[in-house]
């Protein structure tokens, strides 16, 4: 397969979403995403732009709640409560990390789990770990699954290594892979013989957040590698890169996601998928 393009996955998702949005609009419902942002952080603005573009491309709507970066916690909680109570808003994306004057736990707790589109609330997390189906998983973590499904890479019975144990990607993607009957090993900074473990796996999900930190020494022929990392290129180079040195890995493994153009390309599409599912549930 070579490079596993995220754009191809996103395009396929959008085609399905267009049909769902048409059906919802026929009932008088326009799936709507509420975005809550504090300040003008470049990463937030970039993601907001991508999410808005995806919504527009499938016929969904976006409502942005933009607060100053120095707004108070009371101001933020009022906006979250407003979005919670607005029946025309089916899902909410709250940009994090929040500024230092904000209690992150209080902000997450204020958001209704059924409107939490990116799996940040405790209720959403509980749904992932209990396998109850409640709430939505983090968009990036679920995008890994969407890529594997799109390219018909069977997870059941496979040995899978996840590099990274964050609550945003490492832990939730491990639970999602377990749900698909994969046999999952989580590796982290204290793991011994990590290279031996990755070489023994069928699928490796790399989510360490360290630019170009793993190369061909960690992999073998026939594996599939999903690179979730998005990092500034080191040594002052322009642009972004993944955790994997793709140029030396691509010719070795069966398939690897590029950065950019891989998991990140699927994430905003997956976010809008969640909004549409929430709109269906609201009916």
Summarize the structure.
With 283 residues, this protein is α/β, with parallel strands linked by helices.
What's the SSE blueprint?
Elements: E1 2-3, H1 6-25, E2 32-38, H2 42-58, E3 61-67, H3 73-85, E4 91-94, H4 104-110, H5 122-130, H6 139-150, E5 159-163, H7 170-179, E6 183-187, H8 194-200, E7 203-206, E8 224-227, E9 231-232, E10 240-241, H9 246-249, E11 255-256, H10 263-282
Parallel strand pairs: 1-11, 2-3, 2-4, 5-6, 5-7, 7-8, 8-11
Antiparallel strand pairs: 9-10
Helix pairs in contact: 1-10, 2-10, 6-7, 6-10
Q: What does the average pLDDT come to? A: 95
* Helical amount: 40-55%
CATH architecture label name of the largest domain: 3-Layer(aba) Sandwich
**How many helical elements?**
10
**N- to C-terminal distance:** 41 Å
Structure description:
The protein is of the alpha/beta class. The protein has two domains: 28-114, Leucine Dehydrogenase, chain A, domain 1 (Rossmann fold, 3-Layer(aba) Sandwich), CATH 3.40.50; 139-264, NAD(P)-binding Rossmann-like Domain (Rossmann fold). 42% of the residues lie in helices and 16% in strands. It has ten helices and eleven strands. It has helices at 6-25, 42-58, 73-85, 104-110, 122-130, 139-150, 170-179, 194-200, 246-249, 263-282; strands at 2-3, 32-38, 61-67, 91-94, 159-163, 183-187, 203-206, 224-227, 231-232, 240-241, 255-256. The strands form three sheets. A six-stranded parallel beta sheet has the order 1-11-8-7-5-6, with helices on both faces. Strand 9 (231-232) and strand 10 (240-241) form a beta hairpin. Helix 1 (6-25) runs parallel beside helix 10 and helix 6 (139-150) crosses helix 10 (263-282).
């Amino acid at each position: 397969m070579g490079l596993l393009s995220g754009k191809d996955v996103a395009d396929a998702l959008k085609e399905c979403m267009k049909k769902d949005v048409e059906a919802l609009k026929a009932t008088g419902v326009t799936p709507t995403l509420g975005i809550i942002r504090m300040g003008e952080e470049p990463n937030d603005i970039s993601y907001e732009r991508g999410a808005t573009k995806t919504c527009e491309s499938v016929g969904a709507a976006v409502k942005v709640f933009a607060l100053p970066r120095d707004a108070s916690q009371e101001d933020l909680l009022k906006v979250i409560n407003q979005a919670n109570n607005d029946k025309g808003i089916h899902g909410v994306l709250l940009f994090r990390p929040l500024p230092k004057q904000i209690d992150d736990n209080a902000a997450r707790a204020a958001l209704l789990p059924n409107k939490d589109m990116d799996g940040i609330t405790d209720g959403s997390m509980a749904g992932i770990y209990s396998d109850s189906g409640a709430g939505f998983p983090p968009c990036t973590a679920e995008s890994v699954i969407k890529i594997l499904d799109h390219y018909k890479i069977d997870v059941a019975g496979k040995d899978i290594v996840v590099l990274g144990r964050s609550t945003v990607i490492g832990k939730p993607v491990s639970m999602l892979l377990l749900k698909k009957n994969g046999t999952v090993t989580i590796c982290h900074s204290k793991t011994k013989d990590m290279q031996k473990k990755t070489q023994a796996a069928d699928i490796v999900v790399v989510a360490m957040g360290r630019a170009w930190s793993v190369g061909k020494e960690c992999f073998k022929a026939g594996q599939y590698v999903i690179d979730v990392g998005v990092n500034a290129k080191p040594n002052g180079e322009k642009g972004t890169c993944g955790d994997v040195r793709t140029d030396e890995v691509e010719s070795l493994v069966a398939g690897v996601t590029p950065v950019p153009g891989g998991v990140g390309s699927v994430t905003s599409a997956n976010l809008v998928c969640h909004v549409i599912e929430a709109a269906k549930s609201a009916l």
